[in-house]
Design brief:
Helices cover 35% and strands 28% of the residues. It is α/β, with parallel strands linked by helices. Strand 4 and strand 5 form a beta hairpin. Helix 3 runs parallel beside helix 5. It is globular, with a radius of gyration of 17 Å. Pfam families: ABC_tran. This is ABC transporter ATP-binding protein. One of its GO terms (molecular function) is ATP binding.
Length: 228
């Protein structure tokens, strides 16, 4: 690849006697949407956690956008995640007592932005995801698809280099799932954000540019994906 944003080399990771990763090499191209697939217990979540700097591998290296994450302390990795990485989870993990605007603004406030600037950017991202009329509502008053779009806006408001999406539509019905995936991929492709998408669902993976499959701690394939 001409311009990889993530280069992982020789990753191993064990939890007690269990080898979760057994020497994985992987590159992710800048602006690519990569689907990481695999059965439960295959090591796919451990791989992605290493790529995102959430955990350190036992051996090997991860270079993200020019920074060797494996050479950093936990506090330094946390700073990189705040500034350059976005996360979307299956159940959104929004704060229920905050409005949509406040949820989206939170990462900017944590990074030291003023309340006014953070709210302005939060509202702009809600608008981009078709949620301008939900800005003052709490997550509990929204549909599941709307709440997940708020979570996507929160993940993208800092303009991360890489978005890690862990089963982002796993809790939604098929119609909502397609709507949310379509909205997410539209905005990330416009902004050039790289996406690493963890999924067990082939239809979700079909939205990606490429798929890799993790089995027993090893990569078993890398395939171009054709949207359904």
């Amino acid at each position: 690849m001409a311009d990889p944003i993530i280069t992982a080399t020789g990753l191993t990771k064990s939890f007690g006697p269990t080898q979760a990763l057994r020497g994985i090499d992987l590159t992710v191209e800048r602006g690519e949407v990569l689907a990481v697939m695999g059965p439960s217990g295959s090591g796919k979540s451990t791989l992605v956690h290493c790529l995102a700097g959430v955990i350190s591998p036992d051996s090997g290296s991860v270079v993200l956008d020019g920074t060797d994450l494996t050479a950093l302390s936990p506090d330094q990795r946390a700073k990189v995640r705040l500034q350059r990485i976005g996360f979307v989870f299956q159940f959104g993990q929004l704060l229920p007592d905050l409005t949509a605007t406040d949820n989206v603004a939170l990462p900017l406030l944590m990074a030291g932005r003023s309340r006014r600037a953070a709210n302005t950017q939060a509202i702009a991202w809600l608008d981009r995801l078709g949620l301008g009329d939900q800005a003052d509502k709490s997550p509990g008053s929204m549909s599941g698809g709307q709440a997940q779009r708020v979570a996507i806006a929160r993940a993208l408001v800092t303009r991360p280099a890489v978005l890690f999406a862990d089963e982002p539509t796993g809790s939604l019905d098929s119609v909502s799932s397609e709507s949310v995936l379509g909205a997410m991929l539209e905005v990330v492709r416009e902004s050039g954000t790289t996406v690493v998408l963890i999924t067990h669902d082939a239809r979700t993976a079909a939205y990606a540019d490429r798929e890799v499959i993790v089995r027993d701690g090893l990569l078993s394939g890398a395939y171009a994906s054709v949207p359904a």
